[in-house]
Amino acid sequence: MLIPNGSVFTPAVLTLAGIPGLESVQRWIGIPFCVMYFIAVIGNSLILGTIKYEHSLHKPMYIFLAMLGATDIALSTCILPKMLGIFWFHLPEISFAACLLQMWLIHSFQAIESGILLAMALDRYVAICHPLRHTTFFSQQLLTHIAVGVILRASILVAPCLVLIKFRLKVFRTTIISHTYCEHMAIVKLATEDVRINKMYGLFVAFSILGFDIIFITLSYVQIFITVFHLPQKEARFKAFNTCIAHICVFLQFYLLAFFSFFTHRFGAHIPPYVHILLSNLYLLVPPFLNPIVYGMKTKQIRDHVLKLLFSKKFLNH
């Protein structure tokens, strides 16, 4: 097999370049990212602890919220420690196997988060449009099946991306990834071979997961709005709509950032690379940071129990 000059055959180690064009300010960019990470971990941990220990919150809506919080912690932890290692400690090297593992974990957790948002939309749809069926429909068995299905769907659909890179792509024009983490297309673009299959499968996964989920989430909320606006009492309309506000905010910020990142990466040829990378980082770090804030502010039950937890601990310390 002929290897072009300067190319590398199955590299053992890759180098994450960080944010090309912003190398001089990377250490400062790391500060807000680090703050966002700690707020995400603390906020989501508070919500997880509150839901676990407060039996009145052992309902489908809050169980899905706990799943979302756990996914957010896992997703941001997959990215940020290595990113800060690049920005602050000049540790850009990562083994090829570890890079593929990080890629699989990141994209799997993205897909899991999308699946949980779909499950949350379904929960709100049944609760508002078919309230008498909600308790019987969302049994403990169904919740378990949804959780397992969401995880399996993500893991199985993303896994071939890893396999296609590992066994199809052998020769790389460089070992430097112009990114802060191991992203599928960033790795694929390093190869000298024909990567059309890799690109096509990446698009298939994106549209089969995000595309499928966003269509059914949108349909669910359209039905919810139709039902809410047909309620006879203004107070009932407001109460029903208020239970959906936090979900809608989380849904919009997750998918808007996802589509901005997706389309600028694939079709924004004239956009500077650092814009692509910053958008990708924001897409992965902003939702875990904002979700506990949104749910903490807009969901009264969560807010009240978190305050109760914090102030009871403070009282006990005194």
Describe this entry's structure for a reader.
With 318 residues, the protein is mainly alpha-helical. The protein is built from 10 helices and 5 strands. The chain has helices at 26-53, 60-89, 96-129, 134-137, 140-168, 184-188, 196-229, 234-267, 273-298, 300-317, and strands spanning 8-9, 13-16, 93-95, 171-172, 176-177. Strands 3-2-5 form a 3-stranded mixed sheet. α2 runs antiparallel to α3 (96-129) and α8 packs antiparallel against α9 (273-298). It starts with 7 loop residues before the first strand and ends with a helix. The mean pLDDT is 89.
**Percent of residues in helical segments?**
over 70%
* Uncertain segments: none
SSE class: mainly alpha
Task: Let me know the average pLDDT.
Answer: 89
Distance between the termini: 73 Å
Number of helices: 10
> Taking Cα atoms only, what radius of gyration do you get, to the nearest Å?
22 Å
Oligomeric category: single chain
What's the number of extended β-strand segments? 5
* Largest beta-sheet characterization: 3 strands, mixed
Proportion of residues in β-strands: under 5%
> Secondary-structure element sequence?
EEHHEHHHEEHHHHH
Spatial order of the strands forming the largest sheet:
3-2-5
Overall, the morphology is globular
Question: Which descriptors apply to this entry?
Answer:
two-stranded antiparallel ribbon; globular; mainly alpha; 4% strand; 10 helices; single chain; three-stranded mixed sheet; 318 residues
Record the SSE blueprint.
Layout: E1 8-9, E2 13-16, H1 26-53, H2 60-89, E3 93-95, H3 96-129, H4 134-137, H5 140-168, E4 171-172, E5 176-177, H6 184-188, H7 196-229, H8 234-267, H9 273-298, H10 300-317
Parallel strand pairs: 2-5
Antiparallel strand pairs: 1-4, 2-3
Helix pairs in contact: 1-2, 1-9, 1-10, 2-3, 2-9, 3-5, 3-7, 3-8, 5-7, 7-8, 8-9, 9-10
